[in-house]
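Extended Data, panel c. Modelled sequence:
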Amino acid sequence: MLRSIDYPENDTSVQRLRALVDEGNYGPGDRLPPERQLIEMLGIGRGALRRALDQLESDGLIWRHVGKGTFVARESDRPNDVLSTLAHQMNPVRMMRARLCIEPAIAREAAINASGEALSAISAAIDGARAAASWSEYERQDDKFHRAVAEASDNPLLIAVFDDVVRVKRKVAWGSVTRENSRPPLHHSSFAEHDAIYEAIVEHDPEAAFQEMRKHLNSVSARLFGDS
């Protein structure tokens, strides 16, 4: 029988999940209970749990692998690590250059190693991005797409590298982006670019996956910085 924990009513879902990791004798590399059990243990809904998981993953406390579960990445009381220091040395242009070096190579590995389950996760993120009713939801689905591609590489070290890149990216000051619409338009270029990456991975074409991811990131860079 699952052990339920009594939390203060005003605790947020993030605080509850963080407390579970801190106080539940979970060490680095340990797997957390599945979502259904976490919902019961924490007394929160599925949506709140997934937002909490997203936050802890962003903070570097956990990592997730499709089909395998959620794992503790490192001690929650660890002081600010090298990634925080590194983020202060980065700017958006450097960040995009780093992504251009790393993510196409990850996409190439995904084309070699992607399982059916991994392909389904990529496809679901593509569908979620197209259905997004706001830019913030689109960006969340876009993050899921790139994470799913990394997971499709089936290489824990590459996934860890990708996650560290994302953590640094989230700490870089990107400034404000002007949006003409409240949600991505139907002709938003990333939709077709994501499709092309997915198709290359489905076809298990490593070189095409590498090139399509590179084209996509160059396109994002051009929109952000006006690159030629």
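The chain has a mean pLDDT of 85. This feature is highlighted in the accompanying rendering.
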